[in-house]
Amino acid sequence: MSANVFTLYLFYEFITVFTYPLVAHHQDEEGYHGGRKYLVYLMGTSKLFLLPAMILTYVLCGTLDFRLGDIARGIFPPDANPTLVTITYCLYAAGLAKAAIMPLHNWLPSAMVAPTPVSALLHAVAVVKAGCSASAAYFLSVFGVNLMDTLGLGEVTAIFAAFTIVLGIRHCTDQG
Fold this sequence. Notes:
Elements: H1 5-23, H2 29-61, H3 82-94, H4 107-110, H5 116-151, H6 153-175
Helix pairs in contact: 1-2, 1-5, 2-3, 3-5
C-alpha cells in the first residue's frame, strides 16, 4: 500500500523490529541465537543492499515514487544506463531476505525456536509474505514489466525463484 520506495522500506524494517521479540520469546540461549541471526540477516541485508538500491534509484530516476496503476513502465527513464539498472535490480533482490530466497534463507530455520503459533505467523503470514509482497512492489512498480523484459530480468528472477523452491523442497524432504 506504499506510494514510494522509502515508505515501503521503512515499514519493511518495522516488521523486523516488531517481530524480533517473538523470535527471542523463550529468553534462552537458543532463542537469543535465533533472534540474533534473524536481525543480522533481515536488517543486515536491507541495510547492505536495499539502501544502496534506493540511492541508485533516486540518482537514476530523480524520484522514489511508484507509478501506481502502470506496472508496464516503472519509474526508470527510457535512457537509463542498462548496467546500472541491472545492478540496482540485483541490489533490490539481495536486500529482500524476508522472502527467504536462497542463499539468504538461513534465518528461517533459526527463527523456528519461537512457539509454533508464532513460527507459523512469522513464516506464513507476516514476515515471508511481507518479503514476497515487497519483491513484487519493487520489481513491478520500480522497474516495470517492459524494462524487466527488455533487460531479461524477469527470466533470471523466475529461474532464481524456481531454484529456491526446488532446493527448499529438497531440504524439507531430506529432513524427513
